Amino acid sequence: MKHLVITLNILIICVLRNFVSSDNILGCGGFVKSSVPINFSLVEIKLYTKQGSLKYQTDCAPNNGYYLIPVYDKGEFVLKIEAPPRWNFEPKQVALIIDGQNDVCSQGKDTNFYFEGFTINGKVVSREHTSGPEGISVSLKTDKILQRTSTSKDGRYSFSKVLPGSYLLIAQHSTLEFDKSEIKIEINDKSKDIQKDLVISGYDVRGEVSSDGEPIKGVNFLLFSKKTITDVRGCIKKPVEGFTGSKLGPVLCYMESQEDGKFLFKFLTPGEYTIVPFYKGENIHFDVTPAMLTFTLGHANLVLAEKFKLQGFNVVGHVLAAPGGPPVAGARIWIDDKQETETKNDGSFTIVNMKAAIYKVVVVKENIVFDPMTVKITPSAPQLGPIIARAFKVCGKLHVTRLPTGLDLNALRLVSIESTSDPKTHPTTARTNDKGEYCAELSRGKYKVRPIIAEPELNAGLRFIPESKNLVVQDKFVTDVNFNQFLAKLSGEVKCKKSCRGAVVTLAPKLKGIVETNSFTLLDKKFNFDSVLPGDYEIGIVKEEWCWLKNKLQINVATRDVNKLEFIQSGYVMNVVSSHETVLNYALNEEKNTFKAKKGPNSLCVAQDGVYELTATGCHRFGNEKIIFDTNKLAVVVLQATHHLLSGNIKTNNQVKDIEIEVNISSPTGDLKNSTFMNKFKMDASKPNLFKYEFTLWLEPEDIVRIKPHSGLLLFSPATQTITAKDKCMEDFLTFEGRMGFFINGKILPPLEGVEIYMKDKLITETDKTGKYSIGPLLDNGEKYAVEARKPGYVLTLQKEFDFEAFKLAEIVVKVVDEKNDGIDGVLLSLSGGLDYRQNSLTEKNGELAFVNLEPGQYFLRPVLKEYSFTPPSTILDLSEGKTVNIGLKAIRIAFSCYGNITSLVGEPEPGVVVEAVGINMCKELQEEATTESEGIYRIRGLKPDCQYQVRVKNKQDPQHNLEHATPIAKTIKVQNSDIKGIDMIVFRRPAHMEISGNVVTDNEFLTTLQVKLLRDESTVHTIALTQSTFFQMPSVPFDGRSYLLRLETSLQHSSYSYSLPQVTLKANTSYQHITFKFSPVFKGSESDLHQGSHYAFPLTVLAVIIGLMYKQILPLSSLGAEFVHNVRNPAVNSSRESFGVE
C-alpha cells in the first residue's frame, strides 16, 4: 500500500478541523473500529436525550466506519450504537454532557466504538434427546483456549465477542463421556446459531447389595424400560443363565455386583427404567429385596437411594507351606479361640454350620508360623484360604578363633537378616548366645545374612568371612548359616631410578587413638607385612629428596589379602620461590620443559639427574636472565620481578597507515624518564570490518605513562589516557576507538528542487535541480541522525536511509444549493477516508467548501443539516494524486423550527429549561425538544409539515431548576412550510421551604409549663418553650414532601391535673401551615380549692369561648401576622396561607 504516512501539515489541518462548532451546531463524531473486515453500512449511531427521545441517527461511512452526528442543543445526551443481532461492540453507549466547552464533542475528540466480535449460541444434549444438563464446561479454541463457559438450563451455552474465523468447540466434564465432544465451526457476519450439538454418551446409575451389612458379589441386576431402546451401552447384553423371563418385557441388559457389592450401568440415556435383582448360587437360590426398583434418570449420574439386601452354609479351606507349595498336615484350626478341626494329609479342612459374620482364625504348627486372621465369611464367599505359612525357623553360628586385644571372645553379637526379594522390608536382627549360635523366624523369600560387628570390634579389625551369605527360605526349616574370622597379608615392590636401599616403607592403621606404625627398611625392592587385621591403613614411602608418582597409598583390608602394592620414583624435587606468577622454562641438555610458577613457594619434580638452566617468560621481567639448578645440591631457586607489561589497542572500522602513538613515561616524582613515538603495531584483522592495532610497553612499578594516538583520517575516543603502572601485568588495559568522518547523502524521488532538509528542526540545506542533497562532515559518535524533508503542497515520505518519495496532494470542492440553486451556508460536510482521516466543516455563505491537502485514495462524503435532505445523501469519491474533484449537492427543506422565549414571572430569562414539541392526532408518534440558552431562547428543530404539535415545558426537568409549572401549560401549533416564532411561556418555581406557626389556647398560668416540639422520624427537629405568649413560630423546614409531627408537651404532673396533649402530623408540601392547640387541664383538688383559683380564669375562659366562636374572623388576622413575619425573614418565598385548629 502506497503512502502510509501523512505529513505534519495534513495532521495539523485534520486536528483543527476534526470538529465543527458554531452558534447553531456542534458535531459529535468518531469511528466504528474493527480489527477484522465488517460491513460498516449495517451499523447505526443514534443520539438520544437523557429522557430517551431519539434526536438523530446516522449510518457509518462504508469505507472506514466514520460517523458524524450534529448536535443543535446543549444538555445531557446518550450516544448509542445499534447493529444487527449478535454483534458486540464496546462501549454500547456513551453518556454526553454537552456544554459547548468541556465535553468531548466541543473539544473535537473522537468517541469511538470497537467491534469485539459476534455472539454464538449452541447446545450440549444427551444422546437421543434435544436437551442436556447444565454445568457442562464448553471451550472455544483455536491454537489455544480463548473462552470457557458452562451450560445453563437445557444444556444451552453462549460465547460473546467472537471474531470471524475458524474455531473448535470442546465440551468437557469430570465424570461424563461424550459421543461428540468437539465441533468445528466457521464464524462470519452471516453466521446463525450453531446447528450441530455436542452430545453426551449417557449417565451412570449405581447401586449396591449386601447381607447383614456385608457386600455380596455375583448378584445379577436386570434392566427393563417401557420404551424401546436400540442403542444400549455400558452393560452385558447376553442372556442371564437361569432367568426365565418377566412380565416387564425383554431384558435390555444386566450388570453383576462386584467384590464390594456395588454394580454400575453406564451410558444410560434419560428416561424411566426398572431394575430386577436375580441371584442364584451353585447349590442354592437366594431372595433379594426389593424384588424390583423403578427409577427415573435425568440429565445427570444417579446413585440409587434404596439398597438391595440378601435374605447357615459350610466353609472349606486349605493350609499350605507356600503358595502352590506342599500342604501342611496336622495343623490345628482355631475359630474364635476354639479348636474346630485339624488339616488332613492334603492340608484341607471343613467347618460346618457357618453364618455370615466376622471370625478370628488361627493356625498352629510346630516350626512353622501362621498369622492370625480376621475374615469375613458370607454366602458369596463360602471358602477360607488357602491359608499360607508366614515364616520358618532359620539357625547358624559365628566362629571366632582370635580377637584383637581388649575384645571378649564370648561376647553376644548380632546377625543382620535383610530381604533381597522385597527391598521395602526393613532388615531384622538375631542375637547369638555365648557360643555364637543364633536363630530367627523368616517368611518365604530371599535373604542376605551377615554378622553385625560392633564399632569397637570393627575399629579393632574384627571381620568375618564370608561377609554375607545369600539364603532362600521356601517351605522348610534351614540350618548351618555359619561365618569364620578373617586375618590378612600385605606385599609389594618399590621401583627406583637408582638403588632403593635405605628407603623406608611404613604401615599405619587409620584408627583414632592408635598411633602404632610398622616400618620396613628396604634392602632391595621387595616389602611385606603379615597377620594384618582388617581395617583402613595408610602405607607410604619415605625419601625426601626424591619425588614419587605416589608417596602414600590408602588401602582397606576387608576379607582378602592385599598384593601387588607399588611405589615408583618419578624424579628429583626442585623448589622455586617467585615474587609473581610466571611461566618458567627449564632445560637439561636438549630436553626442554615448562612450569607455571605461582606467587610464593613452588615445588616441581624434574625427571632426570643433572644441572638445569631456567628462564622466565610472560608479562614479567626478572633480574637474572638465566638461573641454574643442580639436582645434587638441593638449593632453592628465587625469582624477583623488576618490570611489568602494559598492553593496549586501537580499534577502527577502516584500515589506515598513518596511525602512531605518543608515549611519555615519568617517575613517581614527575621527572620525565622517556618520550617516544611508536608507529609499529601488531594488526589484528581477524574480524570482518574491524581492524585492531596492538601496542606494548615495559614499565617499572609506579611509572606514570601518558599515551596519545595520532592520525590524519581518524578521530579518537578518548583523545589521551594517563595511567600509573602497578606491580602487576596490565594486559589489554587501554583501548582507543578511531572513527572516520561521516557524510549524509540523500535524494528526492521523483527529482524535486527546493525541498528544505531539516535536522533537529533546524534548516540545513535544500535539494538541487536533481533533487539531491548532502550534509557533512559529521562526527560519527554513535548518534543516530534523522533528517526531515518539507515542501508545501507535497507529502514527503522517508523511503530508504536518507531518500524521500514525493507526491503532490489533491483536493475536493463541494457546493451545496437549495431548490432555487442558491448556496446554503452552515451545512456540515463530513469527509473521511485513508488512515483515520476525517474532516468536518461548515459551508461558507456561498454554500461552498474546499477540502485541500488530501492524499490519493477513496473518500466518503456526507452532508448534514437538520430539516434538510440532500441529493445525493452521501457519495464515495476516488481521488488520484494532485487532482481536484468538484461535486454539487442539492438541499431540500423537509422540516421546520419553532422559536420562543422562557422567562420567569418578573420577565427574567430562564436558561436550561427543556421545552418539547409533541405531535398530536396523525403525528402523535413525533417528538422533538430543545433546551433554552442563557437568554431563555429556544429553537425546536425538525418539525414536520402538515403536523400539529403541542409545545410545552417538559415535565421531567433537572431537579436543580425547581420548576413547579408553566403558563400557559401548552400551546398548539400547526406546521406548514415555514418556521413558527413567538411561542413564549412563563415558568413558576417551587418554594424552597415550608413555614410553620401556631398558637395555644390555654390559661396564662399554664404557659410556663408548656413547650411545642417538632419531630421528624421520631427525632426532635426543634423545641420552643412558651413563657409569655401563646403564639409560636418554628424554623422553616425543607420543601421536600416529608412528614413531621408537631406536639404540645407540659411539665404538669398527672397526679395533680387531668389533661390531654394535642399533636398533629404535617407534610412539607405547601409554603405555610398554621396550627392551633387547645390545652385545658383540670385540677384534681377539693371544691374549696377550686373557689380559690386564679382571678384570671373567668375572663380567659370567656376569651377562649369568643375565639372558638369567631375563629373564622380571627385566624386570618393571625395568619397575616405570621405571613408578615415570614416575608421579613425570607422575602423571596411566596407563601400560601393555611391554618387549622386542633382540639
TrEMBL record:
Alphabetical UniProt keywords: Endoplasmic reticulum, Membrane, Signal, Transmembrane, Transmembrane helix
Protein name: SD-repeat containing protein B domain-containing protein
Species per Swiss-Prot/TrEMBL record: Strigamia maritima
Record-annotated NOMO seventh transthyretin-like domain positions: 574-642
Taxonomic superkingdom: Eukaryota
Principal place of residence: endoplasmic reticulum
A Pfam family the protein falls into: NOMO_5th
Membrane-topology annotation of the record: Single-pass type I membrane protein
Subcellular location: Endoplasmic reticulum membrane
Domain NOMO-like N-terminal beta-sandwich as annotated: residue spans: 29-113
Domain NOMO C-terminal transthyretin-like: start-end pairs: 993-1081
